[in-house]
Design brief:
The complex is a heterodimer of chains A (304) and B (160). By secondary structure, chain A is α+β, with helices and mostly antiparallel strands. Helices cover 36% and strands 27% of the residues of chain A. Chain A folds into three domains: 57 residues, Uridine Diphospho-n-acetylenolpyruvylglucosamine Reductase, domain 2; 125 residues, Uridine Diphospho-n-acetylenolpyruvylglucosamine Reductase, domain 3 (2-Layer Sandwich), CATH 3.30.465; 110 residues, Enolase-like, domain 1, CATH 3.30.390. Chain A contains twelve helices and 13 strands. In chain A, β4 and β5 form a beta hairpin. In chain A, α10 runs antiparallel to α11 and α11 packs antiparallel against α12. Chain A is globular and about 55 Å long. Helix content of chain B is 35%, strand content 16%. In chain B, α3 packs across α6. Chain B is globular and about 50 Å long. Classes of the chains: A alpha+beta (304), B alpha+beta (160). The structure holds FE2/S2 (inorganic) cluster (2 copies). One FE2/S2 (inorganic) cluster binds next to loops of chain B.
Chain lengths: 304, 160
């Protein structure tokens, strides 16, 4: 396990950045610890052999979920845009019950609820989940349909990357050795209805086998916007635009949702090729997609 | 080794420990509070569940430093002056304990639920204990016991 001297505590963001800079390459961030503690006990340091562990649990700025305004100035007009920021140390339980997220990112709340067990949701953080970049990380598909961005900070400043740019492969991210992931931000999906459906082997603690996050927007009984992202299917999280296109401009129906579900499975085979598991995964993924779309549509119906 | 102080079951403990120790290790080996069990050490079984500021957490995943400054409740802290807590009574009454290894964690997960929600549905109960594994009982009597204890805590007549 970790030696005493290894354990550093940062009390604010700047302290954390200084420590990350000072021990660049030789320090690993400890967030909720639900994965790292196990890796440490097994003598693995999540792939990175570092002397120092940085405890960031005292940093208040990393614990808030809030709505912010940014002013975007292009040419001669200034537009105000709303976005939601989730601090990297927000736990899954906090995300699952956040009134703000329930209104603006329903699928993310559902994904957060589906994580591990209550004791894990009380501790595990969204930032940690994204940084581990496990293919089976529950939050990734929901963040992908939000077109969420991650904010990476170091002493020099900040970088903003999309989830797709940030996650470069299973367990791999584009984070630099002295950077901290400080927040996840997205534009609120206020006019959308979103859903998250997970197929796990055992209900609790199931590391996702497969999941789908979907969001739909409607106008006059027609689908105007659609976003679909399957989890645990591709090596890096992405949306399936070919399936989204099937939905846009159409009237919602079971047949249409089935067709879109089928297209998601086809895309899986196109990208990952046929494997021994394809016979199982193909119909399962179509069905999970169908269910996510149907749930999103039912929310819309019960809303009007 | 460093000196730590920790509030467990409303009592302040002072002790020496290494910064790499988990809360579970400290409770069992330094404070002799062996109610929290050590089942897997990988966050899977829930036998080490304790309450930290009222929330159920797995003590095998918590670094001791992250427990300092918070209120820890273990199974040893549930009875008052020798009288068992209603959840404990209900577990005994319903036969929800066999080998007993999962019991402290189960009861604390149940307490975290009931402290927030005095009238949980069966599915809320199953969700609350879904991170606690039991190899013996098949869970039915545990769920029954938690339902019964919710009635007791609401002050309904239950003759337990
Ligand atoms: S010992 Fe902590 S979850 Fe099993
Ligand atoms: S009573 Fe034996 S594990 Fe639950």
């Amino acid at each position: 396990m970790v030696d005493e001297k290894d354990y550093l505590v940062a009390n604010n963001l700047n302290e954390a950045k200084v420590l990350m800079h000072e021990h660049c390459g030789n320090i690993h961030v400890l967030a909720g610890g639900t994965d790292l503690m196990v890796a440490l006990r097994e003598g693995k340091r999540s792939g990175r052999d570092t002397t120092y562990l940085l405890d960031i649990s005292n940093i208040q700025e990393l614990k808030a979920i809030e709505r912010k305004k940014v002013t975007i100035s292009d040419e001669d007009c200034n537009t105000n845009e709303d976005y939601i920021r989730i601090g990297a140390m927000v736990t899954f339980d906090e995300a699952a019950h956040s009134g703000l997220l329930l209104k603006t990112a329903g699928a993310l709340c559902e994904a957060a609820k589906s994580v591990g067990a209550q004791q894990i949701r009380n501790v595990a953080t969204i930032g940690g989940n994204v940084c581990n970049a496990a293919v089976a990380a529950d939050s990734l598909s929901a963040l992908t349909i939000l077109d969420a961005k991650v904010v990476l900070e170091d002493l020099r400043g900040e970088r903003v990357l999309s989830i797709g740019e940030f996650i470069t492969g299973p367990g791999k991210t584009a984070i630099n050795e002295d950077e901290l992931l400080t927040e996840i931000r997205f534009k609120p999906l206020e006019d959308y209805y979103s859903a998250f459906v997970k197929l796990g082997r055992r209900k609790a603690l199931a590391i996702s086998r497969m999941n789908v996050a979907a969001a739909l927007a409607f106008e006059d009984e027609k689908i105007t916007e659609a976003r679909i992202s399957p989890g645990c299917v591709f090596a890096t999280p992405r949306r399936v635009q070919s399936a989204e296109k099937i939905l846009i401009g159409e009237s919602p129906s079971e047949e249409l949702f089935m067709e879109a579900g089928e297209e998601v499975s086809k895309e899986m085979v196109r990208i990952t090729g046929r494997r021994w598991s394809t016979d199982y995964k193909y119909p399962a993924l179509s069905a999970v997609t169908f269910k996510a779309l149907a749930i999103a549509y039912n929310q819309a119906k019960s809303d009007t | 080794m460093e000196r730590y102080s920790l509030c467990v079951n409303e009592r302040e403990y002072e002790f020496l420990a290494n910064a790499n120790e988990t809360l579970l290790f400290v409770l069992r080996e330094r404070l002799d509070l062996t109610g929290a069990k050590c089942g897997c050490l990988t966050g899977d079984c829930g036998a080490c569940t304790v309450l930290i500021d009222g929330e159920a957490k797995k003590a095998c995943l918590i670094q001791i430093r992250n427990a300092v400054g918070h209120k820890i409740t273990t199974i040893e802290g549930l009875s008052e002056n020798g009288t068992l807590h209603p959840i404990q009574k209900a577990f005994i009454y319903c036969g929800a304990i066999q080998c007993g290894f999962c019991t402290p964690g189960m009861i604390l997960s149940a307490k975290a639920l009931l402290d927030k929600n005095l009238s949980p549905t069966e599915s809320e109960i199953r969700d609350a204990i879904s991170g606690n594994l039991c190899r013996c009982t098949g869970y039915e009597r545990i769920v029954e016991a938690i339902l019964l204890s919710s009635k007791m805590l609401r002050g309904e007549d239950c003759d337990v």
